[in-house]
Amino acid sequence: MMYFAHEMSRAALMPLRMATDAQSKLLRHPLSPLSHLPGARSIASAYGVFGDLTRRYPKPAFNLHTTICDGEQVDISETIIKRKPFAQLKHFQRCVSRPDDPKLLIVAPLSGHFASLLRGTVREMLPDHDVYITDWRDACRVPLSAGDFGLDDYIDYVIDFIEELGPDTHVLAVCQPVVPVLAATALMAEDKNPATPRSLALMSGPIDGRIDPTAPCELATKHNLAWFRRNLVHPVPAPYPGAMRKVYPGFLQLTGFVNMNFDRHVDAYRGLFKSMRDKEVEKIRRHREFYDEYLAVMDLPATYYLDTIQRVFQEFHLARGCFMHRGRKVNPAAIEKTALMTIEGEKDDISSPGQTRAAHKLCVNIPDARRLHHLQEGVGHYGVFNGSQWRESIAPRLKTFIRQA
């Protein structure tokens, strides 16, 4: 009922949003007499903020049309090379082919935001790599006929995508996927799969959530699994294609994200009001560029969500050496030839320092010469894979690591 009530409230707000949008234009237009009334600009700005807070945010585009190779600008085209019910494998194909550039699969998180959240990650790797990314689908748009999707299915998808790219593929897992990607690599290594990744970079994820638990980790252990199933899992309402599929709704995940830094978001929208009132176009653009991405959220399949809560955040299966995939024990010690890099942010409040580095203790048979850990000072979770510190400090180290693998 919660999902249905959420949709009804959004529908009920639509006429009000349309009315305030029209009034905002009347209060702003230089030919309108209303625009010359005292306080008109402030009222129009308040209407504008209301519109931003209540509108629907669709899946964002990557909008990566060019990159620089050897000092020259080259065009980029997005190509879907494999489609599956819950994800597609996207290729950022450069118009100039350089066979010596490493193949890089970026495994995007399936944790509420779309893969475009990693736009900055992709942009920085494009000049020197042949880049692919997992583009996960919004579960409310996957029909029931497509079947269920759990953590084991996630691992199967990762293996399938790596095999699609073939040998000598390098893999970068950002945040949530570090556990299933490490599990997939271990299974492939144990099977002597020729497509086993040449290198594996794990970035800011919960390999061992017992280390310095953050707020999300504490929430997972505060309640039993039945509480999550009862309070956070809801059926998708009509007329979505995935009607009646049980999901963890994106709007609930977004509520959690916002509450973690509530004051910061309040200040951001106060700033938006002032920028609209004072016609600061560039500040408005920067605000909307961020929040168009941040407020666009997707639903997660319920089975996958509950699997992750139980096996990763409550019982720590991988860290404890009892992680199973379809009845088979996952053994990270089987990884011998894949180079391993872990990356963390000093101020990460989602996956605290140490949680990702724990992968090195599990992968005991990787030679020391093929291991690397990097802790970036002064950055939080988002800053590890986006922003100036990512571009100037983290990405150069990652590129060198991949080249030397």
Describe the protein's architecture and organization.
The protein has 405 residues and is of the alpha/beta class. Helices cover 42% and strands 18% of the residues. The N and C termini lie far apart (51 Å). The model has no long low-confidence stretch (mean pLDDT 94).
Count of discrete structural domains:
2
What is the percentage of strand-forming residues? Answer: 15-25%
Radius of gyration: 23 Å
CATH architecture designation of the largest domain: 3-Layer(aba) Sandwich
CATH homologous superfamily of the largest domain, by name? Alpha/Beta hydrolase fold, catalytic domain
Distance between the termini: 51 Å
Instruction: Enumerate the strands of the largest sheet in spatial order, edge to edge or round the barrel.
Output: 1-2-3-5-4-6-7-13-14
CATH first level of the largest domain: which class?
Answer: Alpha Beta
Low-pLDDT ranges:
none
Sheet having the most strands:
9 strands, mixed
Order of helices and strands: HHEEEEHEHEHEHHEEHHHEHHEEEHEH
Tally of DSSP helical segments: 14
Return the structural class: alpha/beta
Q: Per CATH, what is the topology of the largest domain?
A: Rossmann fold
